[in-house]
């Protein structure tokens, strides 16, 4: 790789190799390695369950992309390649922990029990969310880049003021965001508040190397996890394609938050295999060689290799998981196409908790506008 001496940045679109401080428990070849600070004991059943999660989440994602291409969804933000970061961190969550997602955390939503049809309803333009955040401890998707980190920090400060930290009722907040969001003021302001108030929160950054079409080198001159040091709390980088490592690291960070030790920044070093959204064409700004290099680190294939190497799964199990995912996706497609269109006036509902004169007036004017079409039909 050549270096642009004027900027000290890689001259090509290829990303630099992962640094030695990367926390990894499962290599791309499916070999289990130990880390002194992040021990993890998993039964064969638990590993198979993680593998099933990864396969199911990817298949749901693929179905959503297909539905978008066929005009059934207005948009979709694919998580292809980021399944391990989301499933690993999602399965580390406790029942009382609260999740604040972006618009790409489909795997975390799966782990929290949110029906994927709710996600499709949002991207089909039929709802503004569609699930009760309190039911799953999973907030609505946030489209504005980085704003959910402020929401999460405020929620974490509320947990702290409830006086439950260090008890059996302790909880923590976790905020998900991408590498591009780290350039937003909201994220940095969240770091300040979380640090100085020692809030019980985990900041989980999925560094997928590309903020839409801008490479990581346009977001930072140092590894993202090291930013936490400047704000006064721990930061670390984990192999985002290693579901074992993501599980162990996130579990420990959440435990620290619940016990009153304050925030942690986790940088999950991963890669967005697909487009930023289905309106994006990544071939315009990144090299095919980069994509091919990351395919060798596929999060699902490394768990499959581990299962086979350790004789914890056979061909029958793998085939059953694939068939289950296929059938689930087919059912999801059917349910998506059967979703009813909302009544036009529903857009005015739930804008405010109580009636509001401006909303009432707008609703009345819109209803009159719709009725005008009925009058024209009668005259014709």
Question: What does this entry show, briefly?
Answer:
With 380 residues, the chain is α/β, with parallel strands linked by helices. The chain has helices at 44-69, 83-92, 106-111, 116-123, 133-136, 147-161, 185-196, 227-231, 243-258, 288-295, 299-309, 315-337, 357-379; strands at 3-4, 9-10, 98-100, 173-178, 201-207, 210-211, 214-215, 235-239, 264-269.
Account of the 3D structure:
The protein is of the alpha/beta class. Helices cover 44% and strands 9% of the residues. Helix 1 runs antiparallel to helix 11, helix 2 runs parallel beside helix 9 and helix 6 runs parallel beside helix 7. The radius of gyration is 22 Å and the shape is globular.
What is the radius of gyration? Answer: 22 Å
The DSSP helix count reads 13
**How many strands in all?**
9
* Shape by Cα distribution: globular
Provide the fold topology.
Layout: E1 3-4, E2 9-10, H1 44-69, H2 83-92, E3 98-100, H3 106-111, H4 116-123, H5 133-136, H6 147-161, E4 173-178, H7 185-196, E5 201-207, E6 210-211, E7 214-215, H8 227-231, E8 235-239, H9 243-258, E9 264-269, H10 288-295, H11 299-309, H12 315-337, H13 357-379
Parallel strand pairs: 3-4, 4-5, 5-9, 8-9
Antiparallel strand pairs: 1-2, 6-7
Helix pairs in contact: 1-2, 1-11, 1-12, 2-9, 6-7
């Amino acid at each position: 790789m050549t270096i642009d001496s004027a900027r000290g940045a890689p001259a090509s679109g290829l990303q630099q190799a992962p640094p030695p401080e990367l926390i990894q428990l499962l290599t791309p070849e499916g070999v289990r390695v130990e880390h002194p600070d992040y021990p993890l004991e998993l039964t064969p059943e638990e590993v198979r369950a993680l593998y099933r999660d990864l396969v199911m989440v990817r298949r749901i994602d693929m179905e959503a992309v297909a539905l978008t291409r066929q005009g059934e969804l207005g948009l979709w933000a694919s998580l292809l390649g980021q399944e391990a970061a989301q499933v690993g961190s999602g399965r580390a969550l406790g029942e009382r922990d609260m999740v604040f997602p972006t618009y790409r955390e489909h795997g975390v939503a799966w782990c929290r029990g949110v029906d994927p049809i709710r996600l499709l309803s949002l991207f089909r333009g039929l709802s503004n969310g569609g699930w009760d955040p309190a039911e799953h401890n999973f907030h609505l998707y946030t489209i504005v880049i980085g704003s959910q980190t402020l929401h999460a920090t405020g929620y974490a400060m509320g947990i702290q003021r409830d006086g439950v930290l260090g008890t059996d009722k302790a909880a923590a907040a976790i905020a998900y965001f991408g590498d591009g969001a780290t350039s937003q003021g909201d994220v940095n302001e969240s770091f300040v508040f979380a640090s100085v108030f020692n809030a019980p929160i985990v900041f989980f950054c999925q560094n997928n190397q590309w903020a839409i079409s801008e490479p990581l080198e346009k977001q930072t001159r140092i590894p993202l996890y090291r930013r936490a040091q400047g704000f006064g709390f721990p930061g670390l980088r984990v192999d985002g394609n290693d579901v074992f490592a993501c599980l162990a690291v996130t579990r420990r960070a959440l435990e620290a938050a619940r016990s009153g030790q304050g925030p942690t920044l986790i940088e999950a070093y991963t890669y967005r295999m697909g487009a930023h959204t289905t309106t994006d064409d990544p071939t315009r700004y990144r090299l095919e060689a980069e994509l091919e290099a990351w395919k060798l680190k596929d999060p699902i294939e490394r768990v499959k290799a581990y299962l086979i190497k350790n004789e914890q799964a056979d061909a029958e199990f793998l085939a059953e998981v694939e068939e289950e995912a296929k059938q689930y996706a087919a059912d999801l497609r059917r349910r998506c196409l059967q979703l009813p269109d909302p009544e036009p006036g529903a857009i005015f509902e739930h804008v405010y908790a109580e009636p509001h004169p401006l909303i009432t007036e707008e609703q009345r004017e819109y209803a009159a506008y719709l009725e005008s079409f009925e009058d024209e039909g009668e005259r014709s």
